[in-house]
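Hi C.,

You asked whether I'd gotten around to modeling the 249-residue construct. I have! Everything is below, sequence then structure, no commentary in between.
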Amino acid sequence: MTNNLLNKNEALKNTDFHKNLHTKAEKFLKQKQYKSAVVPYLNSMLLNKKNIKTYIGISKAYKGLKEYDKAVKYLLMAMELNDANFEVYYELGINYLLCAKPYLAVDCFKKAIKLNPKNLNAQIQLAIAHELLDEPEMSLMIYDKIIEEKPEFILCYNHKAGLYMQLNQFEEAARVFKQILKIDPGYFRANLGLGICFDKLKRQHFAVRYYKKYIAKKPNSDTTRALVGRIVEIYSKKPDTKRRLRVVS
């Protein structure tokens, strides 16, 4: 009887100690003190090797330290405990993208989406993985599907427009940026995108108009300083209309 009580007390102490370690590690993680989070997570793991949250937590700490191989290692260990956990597959996909292994990320995001079909971030990451695999048609199909489900999801429009720009399809990208401004007229990044698109399309008059709209919203940014230089360059290259008219007459 006495031994049983002692064992129970010891187990309770270990449980409390484990909780304290895990709480401490999560606090460091939230504060982005990734290096400080690693040790309490490891100690927590020694006390309870079956707590999947510990493996996910330490993987996030290593991801924050840009040690992606270690992050992957602990997520694979977590998968052995539970192969039906959305967060494990999602984080694994993110780390594979960061490791420049989009071919592995695709499978992870597909499994994550199967477990949680309504998570739009996982769908966007899947589209990004297809972009990195030079499969733009697949990415665009995913973006269109997300927009159909959630027509006001601006992040998705942004990615779609960005992909069109990478493909040098600036007319299409401009249409998407205009859709963003219909949803949120104050979304200044869409003005920047439109300015760049019209600049690439040699429609400098429209480019300057949208550059100025961006500048009005972000007057002190580094991007604004670059845009001011570009506007000056555009104006300096404009033909001198008065001189040309005098020559003609």
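If it helps when you're writing up: The longest helix spans residues 2-30.

Thanks,
B.
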